[in-house]
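Here is one chain, start to finish.
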Amino acid sequence: MIENFYLNKVKILSKTLNLFYKNLPRNLEISNLKIGCELEFYIFNQDKSKILDNKFILDFANLLSAKIEQGQGQIEYIFPFTSDIFSLATDIHDFKKQVFHLANQHNISAAFEGMPNADDCGSAMQFNISLHDINDKNLFSNNSLLINFCANGLLDLTNSMLLILSPNFDDYLRHNLEINKNLFNKSKYTSPINLSLGNDNRTCAIRLANSSAKPHEKRLEYRVASANCDEFLALSAIIFALEYGLIKQQNNYPTIYGNAFDDCYKLEKIIDDFNESQQFFAKENNLVRKRFLEIV
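Its structure:
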């Protein structure tokens, strides 16, 4: 079943975008969806051992106009906001190919897996999202309800679309509680392990980036997807979740101010097992799966 979605991923993204604009409540006055992406990956020696030469890592990142991330050998490339979602998906796809080609030229390996090292930071495909009116004004800048509707849609459907966002067995280590606690204790970046949102809180599944100095840049940062997910299907699932949230218009998730994995919050977990994710996706009432089936 899911293989058919991959074969039809371009059609799915195209139809998803059409339905997003068609189905939105008109009173929200949304004319434009903009999405950017922060893509993380690692470079290793050919035997998969860590590269310890930091100058080599920096030079490699510079060749890609990318920057060093916190993991040893981890690099991040930032795709700017765009309303051309197709171009964004294509650019991510082409960039991955460029990384593999460049790694081969330098006799090293590149890895986009979500968790290539359980003792180091995971690699995400983080999506930055904002909504704009007909004059290109950022609607999130003065409408906290709107951003919360979007966040609720994403959180409601995260486990429903997780097989798309975390497609491989090892990707689910990113959502493991103990691994993330250990990373936090080492002062390393963690990955989301539960359905959570917080203001500038990078332990949450959704970070609400809210700079008082730049309200026009207010955005929602969705941090769940692993770097190796298919960008066409991931964007399709995320856009459908935004549509779902904007239609449902609910605000059911508390804002988290501490570490989202602290026991006091009692939050619903993100599935951290590949087989469980497969079963969840296969359910007849899985809304993401149903939407994709309607399209193909």
